[in-house]
Amino acid sequence: MAQHIAQKLRLTAAVLGTVTRKDLAAAFRGVNPKTAFDLGRADKWLQGRSQPRELSVYDDWTKLLKLEQPGAWIAESDLPGFTAAICARHGIDRAELERRANAHFETAAGHEERSPGLALAGTYACYSSALSPYYRGQLIRGSLSIDVGPGANGLTAAYREALPTGQLLLGGQMTSAKRGLYAHLKASGEAQFFLCLFPHSRPGSVLGGYLCGTTIIGPEPQPSLTRILMVRLRNPAPQAWGGYLPPDGSIAADLASLGLSVEQTEAVDRQLAQFLVGDSDGGASQIPPAEFRAIVDVFDRHWLSHSA
């Protein structure tokens, strides 16, 4: 099974001295003019949203790096082993290679800053209060996928929940504006959700704000509003993941099951639970920016520390 593809591509770019995705794709074409490594899919591979399925890509990859190992080894190797192999083959010190890879990541991040769509694209694990009266007081887990479509701000979003009654899937356009992120999501039936989120900030490890909609499971539809947190994942969540979190469930442990382990799990759990429950002073329901930014700080630091 392929693993650490985004990090391996960054290390490859660092070895080759390629700056852009277009340069990297050109390098693959240099060893195989008919390579299955194409620019469009490379965006997703470098963002950790998917991985090459064609074995030929890995065969071209090992030729590109002039490795003795077969292409399948590149797909399946762990990151330390892959790094050691290309350092030995190209006579590069590990620390120097990692420095180059970090520089390449910053260059790519600068490109993402100019393109809000690329910076937002990815998969997120979502946590919000259950709208159903049958699960009052519990949290529900969902997954959000954001993709880049045509146009300067052509973002599409797909939100999925695994309910006892079956999969709920809603999709629609997402708008990135100066004062926030907005999405109107619709299902094939009558279900509709509206997302109103804080503006995106680099590196984009977490999104948060409000989800508005009506109850899906219940004796009658009830207009509802809940806070929602969306934590960015490096790999998509399994199809079977999701649904209601047990009353004594840990969000930090749940994220760890998806490959995102944070330190001080108990403190993080308290912080996230406090955010999601919120409070009201009798006025408009609003999230204090400082409360959200404290969570951004936790996940941004974790994201950056695991990006090299």
What does the model show?
It is a single chain. With 308 residues, the chain is of the alpha+beta class. The protein has helices at residues 5-16, 21-31, 39-46, 55-64, 71-76, 79-90, 94-114, 116-120, 251-256, 265-277, 289-305, and strands spanning 122-129, 139-148, 155-163, 166-177, 180-186, 192-197, 206-214, 223-233, 243-244. The chain has an 8-stranded antiparallel beta barrel. The protein is elongated. The relative contact order is 0.11.
Order of strands in the sheet with the most strands? 1-2-3-4-5-6-7-8
N-end to C-end Cα span: 21 Å
Major sheet description: 8 strands, antiparallel, barrel
Query: From the helix content, strand content and strand pairing, which structural class follows?
Result: alpha+beta
Task: Please give a handful of descriptors for the protein shown.
9 strands, elongated
Q: How would you briefly describe this protein structure?
A:
By secondary structure, the protein is α+β, with helices and mostly antiparallel strands.
Task: Describe the secondary structure blueprint for this structure.
Blueprint: H1 5-16, H2 21-31, H3 39-46, H4 55-64, H5 71-76, H6 79-90, H7 94-114, H8 116-120, E1 122-129, E2 139-148, E3 155-163, E4 166-177, E5 180-186, E6 192-197, E7 206-214, E8 223-233, E9 243-244, H9 251-256, H10 265-277, H11 289-305
Antiparallel strand pairs: 1-2, 1-8, 2-3, 2-9, 3-4, 4-5, 5-6, 6-7, 7-8
Helix pairs in contact: 1-6, 1-7, 2-4, 10-11
